[in-house]
Amino acid sequence: MATSKITSLFPDNFLWGAASAAYQVEGAYNIDGKGPSIWDIFSHQPGTTHEGTNGDVAADHYHRFKEDVALMAELGMQSYRFSISWPRLFPEGRGKVNAAGVKFYSDLIDELLRHGIKPMITLYHWDLPQALQDIGGWESRETVDAFEQYARLCYQEFGNRVELWSTFNETLIFIGMGYFTGAHPPGLHDPKRGIQACHHVFIAHARAVKTFREYKNTGQIPANGQIGFVNVMQPHDSITNSSEDVAACQMADDLLTHWLYDPVLKGEYPAHILNLAQLTWDVPEFAPEDEALLKDNICDFIGVNYYKREWVAANPDVDNTKINTTGNKGSGQEFGIKGLFKFVHNPQSTYTDWDWEIYPEGLCVGMMRLKERYGDIPFYITENGLGAKDPIIDGEVIDQPRIDYLASHIDAAELAIKQGIDVRGYYPWSFIDLLSWLNGYQKQYGFVYVDRENDLQRKRKKSFFWYKDVIASNGSKR
After folding, report:
1. DSSP tag of 452
2. Which residues of 6-25 are buried (b: 16+ CB within 10 A; e: fewer)?
3. Residue ranges at the known binding site for substrate
4. Using the 8-state DSSP alphabet, how is residue 388 labeled?
5. Is 310 among the residues known to form the active site?
6. Which DSSP state fits 35?
7. Of 383, 396, 414, 453, catalytic
8. Catalytic site includes residue 148
9. Quick check: 433 and 444 in contact, CB under 8 A?
10. Catalytic residue among 26, 139, 170, 310
11. I want to staple 53 with a disulfide (CB 3.0 to 4.6 A). Which of 129, 135, 238, 440 is the partner?
12. Which CATH number characterizes residue 125's domain?
């Protein structure tokens, strides 16, 4: 139930927004000169996604962005986080620029600004050009070079109008599921190759940050421009106080949190995990300039994508990396890496249909833990939302569970601010119903419903009107 407060702790310049990603909303996967991405290829392979769904059409945002931006303006959004499709700008990943792709994003940015909506650009949200995957993808240094060229083009074309940038979204997922579990492209089960690919992502990030600051110093990007990195924030708690479970929880933190945050916020890897990786697999291999690049290019802010906490237990036996992609509660198996840790359910907790724990306090707890490790860094909550099969009652999308979920997490964000965390914006996932990767279109997150049986017509959900009031009241009405 929505509530009102007399005052709000959210600062006046707090950004209320929403988020999306190119492959999940744009469609138009093979027109106007766009090249294929790894997801264009992967999602067309049998058995890779729920019921064979893909992003060929998605929400057709490419053709309907003006309609969508008008809805954002009606919602009152102050900022919109979206990603740029690398193969839409560089069909081959590098070399020749696709002018039509540049024009699309330029027009989108202008439309947002015309409605007073601040763009936040993510350079990489998983859709690597297939041409680069064909030469080794993130395992290749050539891809690092190509990413710097791509970032440079984006700064040149859009930097004078965009203040907020992030380089990568959720390395944990696109590297973890791409190279360790095989569920995402390139579909590998090879830790050695995955660790080296992950290192190249961090080097690409550092080079993009370095280039960003060069453009900023010459005035081609506004003086208040900032660049960050977006990570999964998934707090881990030990299911018991046994020494075995506590040690397993620490290992989960080291591998799934510290390994991914330390390089962008401290400029180095956790030493004991780096030593373990190099002793076991001889990776990551460093080029001579890598260490200095990481140290000298700490990002300006961190974006956190928070959906759930994981309870952790010692794991002597479970070796399973499959997850629930059906939306049938309880159908998932325990995720575990034998000998390291496993994720277990707490019978006292509440879970979504995709077996994700609903734990609003974790939004505050997670940022507090990050502050303890990294100091006073600015945070943007770049994703937070409820994936659900929304009910339609008498023609209306009544997504009350989403309202309850978001309201409780906004409470936690306000508590974080009260406790001294520098939180600067909130971007629920997502503005509009979109392709949820392996889950297809059945897992809905948006404030706007897309009628896939009726020409992709947009319809405002109950949560749309609720969030409009939240924004208008700067968070005091929720």
Report:
1. T
2. eebbbeeebbbbbbbbbbbb
3. 24, 125, 169, 307, 429
4. B
5. no
6. P
7. 383
8. no
9. yes
10. 170
11. 440
12. 3.20.20.80
